[in-house]
Amino acid sequence: MSVLQTLKERSGDCCELCKSTTELSQYTIPPSLNENVDNDVLICKICLDQIEERTDMDANHWRCLNDSMWSEHVAVQIMAWRMLQRLRNEGWPKDLLDMMYLSDEALALARATGEDKDESEKVIHRDSNGVILDNGDSVVLIKDLKVKGSSMVAKQGTAVRNIRLDRDNAQYIEGKVDGQHIVIVTDYVKKT
Ligand SMILES: [Zn+2]
């Protein structure tokens, strides 16, 4: 069964965050590099657009997290936690966060995208042109890159999809080249 089908089955064909049944799609929570049901949630377009900041946040829409934060699925818990963090200045999300339970492992992953940090303390990653990079972005290498600890050379022009940012160091991102997980210096990449 495909990941999408599994998601549809477990959710009863509705958005796992707000229960909407329209325009659903599979969403891989950043910074996951692999698609599997543990990293994915089924979400609607309204949730997706706000998560990806394509539209303004509608705080009231996210009252739905009151229910979905109790999901048994870790990926759903993580997305609920991240959105509550983004909205914490509204007040009520803080109360929900206080009630929420995440395992240590899930909490570490939930924090990986820095939603719980204030803007000023966020680590900002920029490509060689100064363009801001996000988890999940695609980049190309602008020079040949020796891969540490192997004889592999990642060639200039190689595309790296679905990158993840090193949350402590603005100069490093990670991604997969030829199936191998590598660390790349941001000066060597261009966002596509
Ligand atoms: Zn939704």
Automatic annotation (TrEMBL):
Domain PhnA protein N-terminal proteobacterial positions: 6-52
InterPro entries hit by this protein: PhnaA_N_proteobac (IPR013991), YjdM_C (IPR013988)
Pfam families registered for this protein in UniProt: YjdM (PF03831)
Gene3D superfamilies linked to this entry: SH3 Domains
PANTHER family per the UniProt record, alphabetical: PROTEIN YJDM, PROTEIN YJDM-RELATED
Official protein name in the record: PhnA domain-containing protein
